[in-house]
Design a protein that fits this description.
Family: Belongs to the binding-protein-dependent transport system permease family. LivHM subfamily.
InterPro entries: ABC_transp_permease, BCAA_transport_permease
Main location: membrane
Distance between the termini: 48 Å
Order of helices and strands: HHHHEEHHHHHHH
Protein name: Branched-chain amino acid ABC-type transport system, permease component
Number of helices: 11
GO biological process, one term: amino acid transport
Shape: globular
Length: about 290
């Protein structure tokens, strides 16, 4: 029983780190670019399928892991400039446009790759199990946990110690004051949108060996990312991180002990957080 619980704990943390990548991108896009991006899961799926195709074509998972987020991030920045630039402050139009964009991306992927469920193998270096005493556990989820922790500390360092990180924090806190100080919120928002979509694609490449690819996953991942952001708090790196871990744990242990109501438990958690702390566990109170 102890080994089962430990295995499920590691599974939950691996899924939580994947959700962290998604939620971090979504939180940055909404907090800085002020865009309600409901196509976020479609960018995840785009990254996953492109990662699969390039890894098969090049025979190198690591090169695909590097190239795909950069390419999808550039595509995201282009879409922000062409489609979303005139819709700032118009949330309803943003919602409708990004929902439509998500449908377009998902349908193009279905046309290109088919509707069959795809199981993506991990890279050869991370295939197989590790023997941790009496526990035998796959290498890849442990790699995903380590990657999530590394990115959390890296992004935290970049936000605190770099000029662009300071601009992001300034625009997130008060766009008008940031503009008065010479920061261009439009430029910061454009770059942040590209970074956010790139993080979604990174999550797709990393998540494909963990979760099989299938049509409809874009909507599911968007929903998970929204729940993490709501629970953790908008505009906070720590909120996305701890919210993702919490959702991952509730989902993992819910599927283990109460599989029929696992998804309900996450919604119940979100409702409880909204009732007690509407800004999220670590979010800023809006007033």
């Amino acid at each position: 029983m102890v080994l089962l619980l430990l295995t499920q704990l590691l599974n939950s943390l691996a899924f939580g780190m994947l959700l962290f990548l998604l939620a971090l991108g979504l939180s940055l896009i909404f907090g800085v670019a002020r865009v309600v991006n409901l196509a976020h899961g479609a960018f995840y799926l785009l990254g996953a399928y492109l990662g699969l195709a390039l890894a098969q074509a090049w025979g190198n998972f690591w090169l695909a892991l590097l190239v795909v987020p950069l390419g999808v991030g550039l595509l995201g920045a282009l879409l922000e400039r062409v489609l979303l630039r005139g819709l700032h402050g118009r949330e309803l139009e943003q919602v409708l446009l990004t929902i439509g964009l998500g449908f377009v991306i998902a349908d193009l992927l279905r046309a290109a790759f088919g509707a069959a469920v795809r199981s993506v193998p991990p890279p050869p270096e991370l295939a197989g199990p590790l023997f941790l005493g009496p526990l035998i556990y796959p290498k890849y989820p442990l790699f995903l946990i380590g990657t999530g922790l590394f990115l959390f500390f890296l992004v935290r360092l970049l936000l605190a110690r770099t000029a662009f990180g300071v601009q992001i924090r300034a625009v997130t806190s008060d766009p008008a004051m940031a503009s008065a100080l010479g920061i261009r919120p439009e430029r910061v928002g454009l770059l942040t949108f590209g970074v956010g979509t790139g993080l979604a694609a990174l999550g797709g490449v990393l998540g494909a060996p963990l979760i099989a690819l299938a049509p409809g996953m874009d909507a599911q991942m968007t929903l998970f990312a929204l729940m993490v952001v709501v629970i953790g708090g908008l505009g906070r790196l720590e909120g996305a991180f701890f919210g993702a871990i919490l959702v991952g744990l509730v989902d993992g242990f819910g599927r283990l002990f109460l599989p029929q109501v696992a998804m309900f438990l996450i919604f119940a958690l979100m409702a409880l957080v909204l009732a007690l702390k509407p800004e999220g566990l670590l979010g800023r109170r809006l007033a």
